[in-house]
Amino acid sequence: LKMSWFWFYLPLHLLMAACLCHSIKAPTTSSQQSFNTDLFNFYHSLILADGKETTVHLLKDIPKRYYFVLEEGRGLAPFTVTVTPCDVPIEWSILVHKTSASFHGKAARGDHDTQEVSKSQKAPSMVSTIFNYKGNSVETYMGMSSHSALYMLEFLSTERDTHITVYLTTDTTSGHLYPELPMDPRIDVIGIGHTTVTLTWKHSPSVLQHRENIQYCLLVNEKHNYKSLCAAETAIRSSGMKLPPMLALSLSPYLLEPQQVMILSNSELSIINKVSSGEVRQICMGTKNTYTVPNLSPSTQYYFDVFVVNLLTNASAAYTGTFARTLEEPEPKVMELKDGKVIQVVLDGKTQKFYSLQYQARHKKIQFTLQLCHGQVRVHITKNGKTVASENISGLRYFSLKGKLLDTYLVQLRSTEESNSSVKVQVSPHFHKPLFPLLPDSLKIKSFSKLRTCNSVTIAWLGTQEESKYCVYKKRIEEDQVWVELRSADRCSGPESRHKSEKVLCKYFYNINLQRAVTTETIKGLDAGTLYLFDVYLFGPSGIPVRYHSKIVKTRKKC
């Protein structure tokens, strides 16, 4: 059984036969009309390559046809057709048109006269459907043929435009394009944790035979299982991202999109695609058939698909997908607050979960003090289970509360942005001994544009009615460092975190009249056309500093 170039020209002769039949207007039976229609359909089909995977694009409700020809040979010979839907379910069929040897001989010798065609036309139609399927699973048809035949494959998508892949082979001696699956292609879940799931699966026979050219790739998502790698990649692309073909499989250094993160460690390639429905991870782990998926979210259902991939052809076969739900996260431990003690809490921006602090009152009046160090934080305070305060905090915030002895207060904190946040917390019954200094109405630093020169700038800030110490620091920065400096500033850190060369001066001042409680300072010895970051630290009786909002000023380039 073999492919023959002769058959590439067969549809033309069949079409000529149908056309001549109509032109002479000879009486026809219903079977002859059906035969002519079949010939016309075969002619308007495309040739399906043998031994190659073909990508077929389908338009909604418009059938597409391909054909292939098997020539008469010795004995029975097998052929296989594998169809892989890459998105929605499709319908596809295999039709066969068996022709007589005499007709083939005439066509091969080029006898195209009307008389011979008429004889062939009188032959009964032998077109029949030998296979049909509807769905989105990878399906393979295996057939046997002992005589010359013309086969047609017809594909139809009724949901939307889509694409599929088709693989035809008549050569069963040169190996398989697709890797083989084991007799039991299921994925077993052998371990579940709060943030991990451990999977195992039986080895593919292809891995055992061609280890250097075969590898396993795992797909993890929160939506559903995929029946082919082609379907998975289509889903990722439809989420609005550009996925380089076989990115996770080829191990090539493609340029990733902004929504993609590639991690390469311990000979494993992980690609995390950020899509609207969550993360889709692609992990390739060589020929290991046991893998622990890390960094999952607690109490979340995940779907796992394993594909065995031929690295030479990029063809893949899918194991039967599975799913598992990670364990619920244990209740967070509640930290006890003690009178007067300051603690600093770092909040995870990724999970945005509440961090809990508990306090049992030993006085009727208490005061919570919170100083935001970095990021954005929301605080929720309850007394005996009832909410008494809930808001986003910025800078320094006091909560003065009244209650009874032994009332139980719960302070819950969480980051309101994706990056980590931090905050200092203190509870105290001693209102007359504040932890932080008395603050002005605003912690902004003002600069005077008209007073800028090439080597000096003048800044001003508000003070209070209480005599306090103020220290000024400067730092030279580059244009591309502005956002990073402002974003990473720790408002809880004091001058001890600064380099000694950055210190400009320290001074004391106050004014009973708040409208006049303002001070200015001219910083000299600066470079022309240069950006500087200025900070002012306010120290109170306890010695704990409060940092004003940083100010960036650029000296004049020309004077």
Automatic annotation (TrEMBL):
The keyword Transport does not apply. Its main location: secreted. Pfam families: NDNF (PF10179), NDNF_C (PF19433), NDNF_N (PF24354). InterPro entries: FN3_dom, FN3_sf, Ig-like_fold, NDNF, NDNF_C, NDNF_Fn(III)_1, NDNF_N. The keyword Cell membrane does not apply. GO terms for molecular function: heparin binding. Keywords: Glycoprotein, Neurogenesis, Repeat, Secreted, Signal. SMART domains: FN3. Residues 179-316, 437-545 form the Fibronectin type-III domain. It is found in: Secreted. It comes from the Eukaryota. GO terms for cellular component: extracellular region. Secretory protein that plays a role in various cellular processes. Acts as a chemorepellent acting on gonadotropin-releasing hormone (GnRH) expressing neurons regulating their migration to the hypothalamus. Also promotes neuron migration, growth and survival as well as neurite outgrowth and is involved in the development of the olfactory system. May also act through the regulation of growth factors activity and downstream signaling. Also regulates extracellular matrix assembly and cell adhesiveness. This is Protein NDNF. The gene is Ndnf_1.
